[in-house]
Each structure stands twice: as C-alpha cells, then as structure tokens.
Amino acid sequence: MKSIDQVISRMDEIVEECKSKKSRIGYFAVLYRRVTIRIREGIENGEFEDNPRMEKLDILFAQRFFDAYDNYINEDSTTESWLHAFDTSKSSGYLVLQHLLLGVNAHINLDLGIATVETMEGKNLIEIINDFDKINLILAELVDGVKANISKVSPVFGFLIQFANGKDEMLMEFSIRLARDGAWKFANLYFIAEDRALCLNERDERIANLASKIANPGTRLKWMVKLISWTEWKSIPKVMDQLEVIAQECAPNQL
C-alpha cells in the first residue's frame, strides 16, 4: 500500500466480500472504512499537524487489519486479539455492538500502538501525539454515533441505552477513551522495547483477555445479551448497509 486511496479501495473489497459471504466481520469493516474516508478528508483539508505523516500512519495502521483479515481467511496464524473478533463473527449469539467493539479492541488496543511506532521509527514519538489523538477522536465519535442510533438495527438495545448513562461501556467492558490512553502507553513501551516480539505477544495476550470479556460480559448480563440479540436484524448485508448510513451521518465534520 502506497496511498490512502489504495487503503480505501482494499476496504471496499473487504466490505463487498463480507456482504457476499454474509460475514459479520463486515460490521467493523464498514465502520473502519468510514473512519479512513474521514481521515483522507482531513489530510486533503490539512487538518493534521503533519498530513504526509498521517497518511503513512493510516497505511501502516490499515495494513495490520488487512494482514489479520487475509491470514484468517487463508487459515494462517494471526494475533489472538483479532482471532477472538473473527471467531466471534461466526456466531449469531452476539450483539452488533459487540462485533464492532471486538474489532475496535484489536485495532486500537494492539494495532494502533505498533503502527504509530513504525511511523515514528528513528524520531521522537511524542511529536505525533496530537494526530494520534485525532484518529481516536474520529473513531470515538463514530462509535458513539452508532451506539446512539443502534435502535435502527437493535431495537431493544437502542431502548436500553437511553437509560445507560455511559454504563453500556461497563456492559461491554470497553471504553474507547481508555483504549486510546492504553494504546499510547503501549506505543511508548513498544518504542523502547529491546524485544519487540515479546512486547507484542504480551500485549496481545492482555487484549485477547479483554476481548473475551467483551464477548462474555458475565453471567448476570448473559440473559440480557441473548434477549437483545433475538430482536436485532438478522440480515447481515442489511445491517452493514444501515451501519454505513449511520456512520456516514455521524462522522465528525471538524477535528
């Protein structure tokens, strides 16, 4: 990949593959494509501190998802964090939001720190922190927008979330804002690690454990997840189409 346009073209392919195969991996792919389109707009409008550097980061960041996806499809090894997300996508017993957050969990908590370090190799890591935060802002606003409009594909969850007051993040054991902070801390550790492979594996193990909690939020909440999942739309392509509409409407106009 040499440009963000090539990244978006590959995402288009993955979204269409997921639709044709009726794969729930497509839920995250739709959201992530919209994030990347918004980043491209930001680069074109000069919204980042270093726009060429942001394009490099975006390419490296996306490539980790592409590699994980391709490896999984080809039955090759991939990180445990992505393995949880991909394996869970085969089951109808999870919520649309769980599938989205499992993808976000692997990509932010593991991939973003690595891509950031690769982008800043030989430079001062702190120089990229503001643009790093802007990527997370785009994703956070899109996920928040999806949650706020989730009733279009998940009527019961959409009803319950009105009374959650942020507790939906506790339900799913996940917060994008905490993930951002953790990803930055991991980037700093990975940047100075003598054995980066070991550092990556240890981080992957922790994030895979978090993925397990997202997929299985506990016995007390298991019945609620089942109830909500029964009421959600069953057509995977239609859910993907609706998520695209929601994400497009919720993309931030300014950074």
Question: Could you describe the 3D structure shown?
Answer:
With 255 residues, the chain is mainly α. It has one domain (4-250). Helices cover 75% and strands 0% of the residues. It has helices at 4-21, 25-44, 51-73, 80-88, 96-119, 129-148, 155-161, 167-171, 176-192, 196-215, 219-231, 236-250. Helix 2 (25-44) packs across helix 5, helix 5 runs parallel beside helix 9 and helix 6 packs across helix 12. InterPro entries: DUF5995. Pfam families: DUF5995. This is DUF5995 family protein.
Can I get a quick summary?
The chain has 255 residues and is mainly α.
What is the subunit organization of this protein? single chain
Q: How far apart lie the N and C ends?
A: 25 Å
Provide the gyration radius in Å.
17 Å
The total count of strands amounts to: 0
Shape: globular
Q: Mind describing the biggest β-sheet?
A: none
Mean pLDDT: 89
- How many helices does DSSP assign? 12
Order of helices and strands: HHHHHHHHHHHH
| Percentage beta strand | under 5%
Helix content, binned percent: over 70%
Number of domains: 1
Q: Classify the secondary structure makeup into a structural class.
A: mainly alpha
* Low-confidence regions: 166-171
InterPro entries: DUF5995 (IPR046037)
Protein name: DUF5995 family protein
Pfam family, one: DUF5995
Q: Can you give keywords for this protein?
A:
about 260 residues, mainly alpha
How are the SSEs placed, and which strands pair?
Blueprint: H1 4-21, H2 25-44, H3 51-73, H4 80-88, H5 96-119, H6 129-148, H7 155-161, H8 167-171, H9 176-192, H10 196-215, H11 219-231, H12 236-250
Helix pairs in contact: 1-2, 1-3, 2-3, 2-5, 2-6, 2-12, 3-5, 4-5, 4-10, 5-6, 5-9, 5-10, 6-9, 6-12, 9-10
